[in-house]
């Protein structure tokens, strides 16, 4: 099954089970992927989390039902996965701008989110600066947190972790320790599904040769073939743009697949808001 087909198959699975209580793990299995990697790919391609997509689609279908049929709000609330009519009404108003009870007498527009179809651009109009290299295993030292994939806790928690590392000075300590070949702070995701269901580890670390300092942890990055992408421009927009190009253009046309081991974002010790800021994305490939 090709890369695009696998993503579309997972979207079809979501649509076929839209009224059921499905997990990220269930959805990812349809794409023959881990929950973390599918969540990340889906978010990069659509600018939506899985939860946001499902919520928008359910509320779109609920609005159609209300406008075409005589149905009770309480029945729709339970049908579309809400514990109370009040919670359903609040979410409905947030999406459509009106309450469910106002739909039948409303002559304006309701916000409709249609079923997704993945279309991949293979034009490559903007050149991507990428090199393929092989690197032996190496050690990184830093701090880590565990995040649950349930309710997409990882997408909310990781930005807060970065804020904390900058506030408490950990980033300055790591910058001083950075004596390996990869220069800069590393953002590293480690899929923990084999050990702990629905969990990932996220590390903020640096490439380091030497004994691990107190209060820091060490992580071994396995030997890999890496696709290393250049990122030019201020954070976070430049990084987000290149991630989108990687999944919408490079992977479908390159013949490579993600190897499933940790990927790296590399942030050199410069001003990340500088228009000329340079950073990198390292993806293990096979």
TrEMBL record:
<protein>
    <submittedName>
        <fullName>AraC family transcriptional regulator</fullName>
    </submittedName>
</protein>
<dbReference type="InterPro" id="IPR010499">
    <property type="entry name" value="AraC_E-bd"/>
</dbReference>
<dbReference type="InterPro" id="IPR011256">
    <property type="entry name" value="Reg_factor_effector_dom_sf"/>
</dbReference>
<dbReference type="GO" id="GO:0003700">
    <property type="term" value="F:DNA-binding transcription factor activity"/>
</dbReference>
<keyword id="KW-0804">Transcription</keyword>
<dbReference type="Pfam" id="PF14526">
    <property type="entry name" value="Cass2"/>
</dbReference>
<dbReference type="Pfam" id="PF12833">
    <property type="entry name" value="HTH_18"/>
</dbReference>
<dbReference type="InterPro" id="IPR029441">
    <property type="entry name" value="Cass2"/>
</dbReference>
<dbReference type="InterPro" id="IPR009057">
    <property type="entry name" value="Homeodomain-like_sf"/>
</dbReference>
<dbReference type="GO" id="GO:0043565">
    <property type="term" value="F:sequence-specific DNA binding"/>
</dbReference>
<feature type="domain" description="HTH araC/xylS-type">
    <location>
        <begin position="8"/>
        <end position="106"/>
    </location>
</feature>
<dbReference type="InterPro" id="IPR018060">
    <property type="entry name" value="HTH_AraC"/>
</dbReference>
<dbReference type="InterPro" id="IPR020449">
    <property type="entry name" value="Tscrpt_reg_AraC-type_HTH"/>
</dbReference>
<keyword id="KW-0238">DNA-binding</keyword>
<dbReference type="InterPro" id="IPR050959">
    <property type="entry name" value="MarA-like"/>
</dbReference>
<keyword id="KW-0805">Transcription regulation</keyword>
<dbReference type="InterPro" id="IPR018062">
    <property type="entry name" value="HTH_AraC-typ_CS"/>
</dbReference>
């Amino acid at each position: 099954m090709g890369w695009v087909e696998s993503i579309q198959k997972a979207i079809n699975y979501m649509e076929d089970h839209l009224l059921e209580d499905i997990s990220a793990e269930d959805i990812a299995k349809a794409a023959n992927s881990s929950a973390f990697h599918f969540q990340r790919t889906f978010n990069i391609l659509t600018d939506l989390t899985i939860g946001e997509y499902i919520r928008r689609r359910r509320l779109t279908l609920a609005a159609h039902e209300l406008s075409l049929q005589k149905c009770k709000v309480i029945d729709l609330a339970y049908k579309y996965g809400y514990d109370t009519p009040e919670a359903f009404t609040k979410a409905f108003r947030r999406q459509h701008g009106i309450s469910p009870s106002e739909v039948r007498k409303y002559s304006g527009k309701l916000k409709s989110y249609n079923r997704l179809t993945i279309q991949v651009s293979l034009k490559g109009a903007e050149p991507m600066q990428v090199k393929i290299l092989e690197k032996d295993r190496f050690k990184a030292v830093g701090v880590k947190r565990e995040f649950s994939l349930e309710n997409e806790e990882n997408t909310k928690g990781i930005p807060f972790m970065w804020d904390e590392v900058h506030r408490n000075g950990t980033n300055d300590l790591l910058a001083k320790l950075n004596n390996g070949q990869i220069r800069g702070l590393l953002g590293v995701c480690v899929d923990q599904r084999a050990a702990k269901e629905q969990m990932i580890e996220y590390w903020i670390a640096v490439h380091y040769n030497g004994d691990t300092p107190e209060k820091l942890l060490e992580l071994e990055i396995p030997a890999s073939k890496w696709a290393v992408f250049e990122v030019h421009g201020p954070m976070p927009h430049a990084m987000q743009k290149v991630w989108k190009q990687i999944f919408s253009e490079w992977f479908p046309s390159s013949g490579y697949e993600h190897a499933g081991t940790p990927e790296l974002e590399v942030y050199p010790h410069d001003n990340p808001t500088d228009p000329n800021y340079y950073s990198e994305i390292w993806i293990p490939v096979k």
